[in-house]
């Protein structure tokens, strides 16, 4: 095992050695000094101490760089030897040694291994305990470097460090007299909390101890003896410590007070040092839907200015500050430009809680944390240089002070900005560690609301976005706001605009609507005012998140119009990231709650400069720019380049896909032009462009299919003509689409091309040239043998679509080939492939039923019985698979059992498999599976009963099937499953199919019980199905009455005597309520339902009752009475049949 590991280099550090110089030569100085040090033996003489001092000075002054040839284990060995040479009673040497430890570990980015760490920790802890207090600052710096990414290896020393009387607890206490020591102690604790993936976290009790220290630090005001910069660094270290606990330590904030206290200090820290603002926050924020009071006492700018500008550095720091003056000046100039790339807070960059003075990346595999937490808070000394990747600073070009005063003022402002950024990064980690429903309880504390007339605007994240002078801080605030908005659709869906101002209180829905409007207003203000391209990108991304989650269908018009009009110029912005995010925002506008009338109006407006250079009469929808952006040409782009940047083209394709999905009635005008774009994209060399082209093709195809569905609201004359659709798909199949299907190097592209191929309009497929039809079928059947699971799943689904095409479903050879391909996919190891194959098998069996109902019997005669056996067996096996497979497997079983012909059933080899198939259905009806699975099983059982060739009256499984269905109809928690089971019980058309008198009586009693319990549910969501359930049960009861035999009448009479009023009231509801259509096949016209009851009455009248049995008369009297009441209530002139006198 290596003694230590190198984790990276120092950004912005000393210049590297000459590239041509070998690493061994670069590290020669270190090795020579190390050899001299290792040759020494402990010597308490004055000369020995002097030599050690000189060696330490030389090691510290030696130039180190990336790849300098210094082995990590050599560094650890040297430090251990140095500790052995320095006795703890030599304060100056201990101080120098601490500086050496800090410098070498920090500069060479070494993480000490466990064995050497044990020795070095014991030494440093003893040094703090025994050495003079003036050495504690340097020793704590060394300790921070040692424990960095080693928290899990320090378990043995945690009681000494974090126990009740632990060193770090004492030194970080508010009573600590030296502010620098206190800050260094908090920094050590922050490094202890930093965890590395794959290693144990800090134990929970110690996590809580550290959290409380960090929280107390953030809550405490600045002491009089602490300068502004030290205070800022103290706050940064505490913020980074909490962030490490939340990110790496997976600390959960479950207590309301704990979370509320953290959010309160984070909100306070977010505005730390913000010019012109000074807020007073409560100790704890409590979740509430109402805006919280922010007490903001008026500040005195002169006093604030003087307090922050006074030079507060001690003499020890001054020389070091001067040494770094040039470097800092360059960095401040870069900061003031505001034009550097701002990486997203979450995931971009690494948190450096390292050893203090230098900014350096985390080791490979270390926890990736927000960029906003990087760098600045890790500095141990004011003299530390900050790298170019640290948080940006504010330009002081407008300063009226002297150079010295202005420089110090800028430095203080820079550190204050880092505190704000650290607070925002910590808040982002907090958002990720708590549930959204908990977070939204604090919505009003961080998200602006429309201020009351005459009231000041409450401080929020938008305050930072609009007023913070640092572009980096503004970007961080926007990233946090985006994280809050992400996934907020359900929370924001309650928003509702209202013009009723007379209410005594503001409803929650109105408050949320007001907040949404204020967010739109503030973000659009920020958009206009922002000069930094990186922050501009974040504003637009935040707007896209807001647009994606806002319920515009419940809000007043104009919000999207304002966003649309203001974003147009940014489509041609000089910065490509701004252009891409602008397209993302347009995509959000055209995809949210599509189709929105407001967006339709925007799309119908003539183009203006910014979206297109085409004529003013061209709609926004499809200017040449979109086609150019997607296919690559951009002659009019700002840079004059031939191609649009790659991300721009991908985003343009996604916007077109959103338009095709949500606004196809407007997109269809450009169908052929979009086809050309797709062909160009599929012909590109880059697979990502090809993939997005295929996705666009799929969206267009799917929208065309929706136009031609029977329930489509699009008028026939408004649809794309079938001949044009044929022309479109012929162009696609003659173009590069077949090549994309054969591109085995990119299976994702193949799968997407398969999905696109499955979106061909069925009416158009039959009109394609025969060679193109054969091409589609041949390629799909061939790709079904692919070893890639994505491709195989997409192919299985596509075949399931094709088998429903009218022009293919009667082709026995195609159906058989498709069946064999699907059966092969059902054996695949991938659950996704099996799920798609099961769905396709269900579709294929639907085709069998459709063909069975045609007058031409040739299909049934030609279809292979052996293949039917294989399909039955595969469906039985699939019914034991996972729910996604099982739900379609039982659907297929029902269809197959319905399809079986007498010629099949007579064969002995079918008898056993029929029994097995029905047992599989019965067990699926009864098991506690997903409700969709049980619904499909009940539906399948109804299909079984439709086959008159099956021996329902004699088969032993018939009674088991009825028992399962009656059990479900009376006791299943899901009412839709009950409805389907009642519908299945009403399927048999002959009395013999219901079996014995006892079986019939059991079914009748179960249906009456189910009717009685039709409102018994604890799930509020099931109540909306109560009426449908009663309708279906009443239909089943009337159906049973219309088939009753003389022997059945006594059980019917007995039940009616017990529940006459209840049954009659529900049958009357059934007769009166025939307006809605459901999926069970129940008649939906009152006349049809009335006729059903009359048919049942006529059947009962025709039954030859047993002598002396009053049941017949009682049942007829019940039905006549029911019809009479119905006729009277509906005003019908038709009297019920007067048959009771016979």
UniProtKB/TrEMBL annotation:
Span list, region Disordered: 1-25, 289-407, 613-633
UniProt biased composition (Low complexity): 383-399
Domain DUF4042 per the UniProt entry, residue ranges: 418-599
Entry annotated with the keyword Chloroplast: no
Originating species: Bos indicus x Bos taurus
Record-given protein name: HEAT repeat-containing protein 6
Biased composition (Polar residues): 301-311
InterPro entries: ARM-like, ARM-type_fold, DUF4042, HEAT, HEAT6
PANTHER family in UniProt: HEAT REPEAT-CONTAINING PROTEIN 6 (PTHR13366:SF0), MALARIA ANTIGEN-RELATED (PTHR13366)
Gene3D superfamilies, per database record: Leucine-rich Repeat Variant
């Amino acid at each position: 095992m290596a003694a230590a590991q190198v984790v990276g280099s120092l950004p912005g550090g000393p210049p590297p050695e000459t590239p041509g110089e070998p690493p061994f030569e670069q590290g020669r100085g270190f090795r020579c000094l190390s050899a001299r040090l290792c040759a020494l033996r402990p010597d308490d003489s004055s000369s020995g101490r002097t030599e050690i001092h000189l060696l330490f000075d030389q090691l510290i002054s030696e130039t180190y760089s990336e790849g300098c040839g210094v082995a990590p284990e050599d560094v650890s060995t040297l430090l251990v030897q140095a500790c052995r040479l320095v006795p703890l009673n030599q304060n100056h040497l201990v101080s120098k040694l601490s500086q050496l430890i800090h410098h070498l570990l920090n500069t060479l980015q070494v993480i000490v291994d466990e064995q050497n760490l044990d020795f070095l920790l014991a030494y440093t802890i003893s040094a703090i305990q025994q050495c003079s207090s003036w050495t504690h600052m340097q020793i704590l710096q060394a300790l921070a470097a040692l424990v960095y990414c080693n928290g899990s290896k320090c378990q043995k020393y945690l009681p000494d460090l974090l126990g009740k009387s632990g060193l770090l607890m004492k030194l970080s206490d508010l009573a600590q007299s030296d502010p620098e020591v206190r800050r260094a102690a908090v920094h050590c604790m922050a490094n202890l909390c930093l965890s590395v993936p794959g290693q144990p976290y800090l134990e929970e009790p110690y996590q809580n101890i550290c959290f409380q220290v960090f929280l107390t630090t953030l809550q405490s005001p600045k002491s009089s003896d602490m300068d502004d910069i030290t205070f800022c660094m103290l706050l940064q270290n505490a913020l980074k410590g909490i962030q490490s606990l939340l990110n790496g330590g997976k600390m959960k904030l479950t207590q309301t007070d704990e979370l509320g206290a953290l959010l309160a200090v984070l909100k306070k820290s977010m505005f730390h040092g913000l010019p012109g603002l000074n807020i007073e926050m409560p100790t704890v924020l409590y979740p509430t839907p109402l805006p919280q009071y922010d007490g903001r006492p008026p500040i005195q700018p002169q006093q604030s200015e003087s307090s922050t500008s006074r030079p507060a550095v001690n003499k020890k720091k001054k020389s070091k500050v001067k040494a770094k003056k040039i470097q800092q000046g360059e960095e401040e100039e870069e900061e003031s430009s505001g034009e550097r790339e701002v990486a997203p807070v979450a995931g971009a960059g690494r948190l450096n809680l390292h050893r203090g003075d230098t900014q350096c990346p985390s080791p490979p595999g270390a926890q990736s944390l927000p960029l906003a937490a990087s760098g600045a808070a890790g500095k141990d000394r004011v003299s530390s240089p900050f790298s170019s990747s640290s948080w940006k600073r504010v330009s002081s070009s407008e300063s009226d002070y002297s150079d010295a005063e202005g420089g110090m003022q800028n430095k203080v402002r820079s550190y204050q900005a880092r505190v704000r950024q650290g607070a925002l990064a910590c808040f982002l980690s907090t958002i990720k560690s708590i549930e959204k429903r908990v977070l939204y309880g604090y919505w009003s504390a961080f998200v602006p609301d429309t201020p009351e007339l005459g009231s000041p605007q409450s401080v929020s994240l938008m305050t930072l976005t609009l007023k913070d002078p640092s572009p980096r801080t503004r970007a961080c605030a926007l990233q946090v706001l985006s994280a809050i908005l992400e996934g907020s659709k359900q929370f924001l869906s309650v928003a509702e605009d209202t013009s009723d101002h007379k209410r005594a209180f503001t409803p929650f829905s109105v408050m949320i609507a007001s907040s949404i409007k204020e967010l739109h207003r503030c973000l659009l203000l920020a958009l206009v005012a922002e000069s930094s391209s990186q922050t501009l990108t974040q504003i637009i991304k935040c707007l896209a998140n807001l647009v994606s989650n806002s319920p515009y269908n419940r809000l007043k018009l104009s919000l999207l119009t304002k966003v649309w009009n203001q974003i147009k110029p940014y489509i041609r912005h000089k910065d490509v990231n701004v252009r891409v995010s602008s397209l993302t925002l347009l995509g959000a506008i055209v995809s949210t709650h599509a189709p929105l009338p407001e967006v339709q109006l925007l799309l119908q407006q003539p183009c203006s400069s910014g979206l297109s250079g085409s004529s003013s009469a061209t709609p926004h929808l499809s200017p040449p720019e979109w086609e150019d952006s997607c296919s690559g040409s951009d002659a009019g782009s700002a840079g004059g380049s031939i191609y649009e940047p790659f991300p721009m083209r991908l985003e343009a394709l996604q916007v077109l896909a959103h338009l095709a999905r949500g606004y196809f009635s407007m997109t269809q005008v450009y169908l052929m032009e979009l086809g050309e774009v797709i062909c160009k994209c599929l012909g590109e060399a880059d697979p990502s462009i090809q993939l997005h082209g295929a996705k666009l093709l799929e969206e267009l195809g799917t929208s065309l299919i929706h136009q031609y569905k029977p329930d489509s609201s699009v008028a026939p004359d408004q649809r794309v003509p079938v001949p044009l659709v044929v022309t479109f798909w012929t162009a696609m199949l003659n173009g590069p689409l077949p090549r994309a299907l054969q591109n085995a190097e990119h299976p994702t592209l193949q799968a997407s091309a398969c999905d696109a191929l499955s979106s061909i309009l069925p009416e158009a497929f039959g009109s394609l040239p025969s060679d193109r039809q054969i091409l589609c079928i041949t390629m799909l059947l061939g790709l079904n043998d692919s070893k890639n699971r994505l491709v195989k799943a997409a192919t299985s689904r596509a075949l399931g679509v094709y088998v429903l095409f009218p022009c293919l479903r009667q082709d026995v050879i195609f159906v058989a080939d498709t069946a064999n391909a699907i059966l092969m996919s059902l054996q695949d190891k991938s659950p996704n492939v099996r799920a798609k194959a099961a769905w396709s098998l269900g579709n294929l069996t639907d085709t069998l039923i459709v063909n069975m109902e045609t007058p031409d019997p040739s299909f049934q005669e030609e279809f292979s019985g052996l293949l039917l056996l294989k399909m039955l067996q595969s469906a039985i096996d699939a019914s034991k698979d996972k729910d996604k497979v099982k739900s379609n497997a039982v659907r297929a079983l029902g269809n197959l059992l319905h399809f079986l012909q007498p010629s099949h059933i007579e064969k002995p080899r079918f008898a056993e498999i029929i029994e097995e198939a029905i047992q599989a259905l019965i067990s699926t009806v009864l098991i506690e599976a997903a409700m969709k699975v049980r619904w499909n099983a009940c539906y399948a059982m109804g299909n079984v009963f439709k086959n008159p060739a099956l021996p329902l009256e004699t088969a032993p499984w018939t009674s088991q099937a009825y028992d399962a269905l009656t059990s479900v109809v009376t006791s299943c928690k899901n009412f839709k499953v009950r409805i389907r089971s009642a519908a299945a019980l009403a399927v048999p058309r002959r009395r013999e199919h219901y079996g014995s008198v006892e079986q019939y009586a059991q079914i009748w009693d179960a249906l009456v019980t189910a009717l009685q319990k039709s409102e018994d549910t604890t799930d509020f969501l099931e109540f909306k199905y109560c009426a449908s359930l009663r309708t279906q049960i009443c239909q089943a009861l009337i159906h049973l009455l219309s088939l009753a035999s003389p022997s059945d009448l006594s059980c019917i009479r007995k039940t009616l005597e017990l529940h006459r009023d209840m049954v009659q009231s529900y049958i009357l509801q059934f007769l009166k309520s025939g307006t809605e259509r459901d999926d069970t096949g129940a008649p939906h016209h009152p006349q049809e339902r009335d006729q059903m009851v009359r048919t049942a009455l006529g059947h009962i009248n025709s039954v030859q009752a047993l002598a002396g049995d009053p049941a017949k008369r009682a049942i007829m009297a019940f039905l006549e009475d029911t019809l009479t009441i119905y006729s009277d209530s509906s005003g019908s002139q038709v009297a019920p049949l007067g048959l009771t006198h016979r």
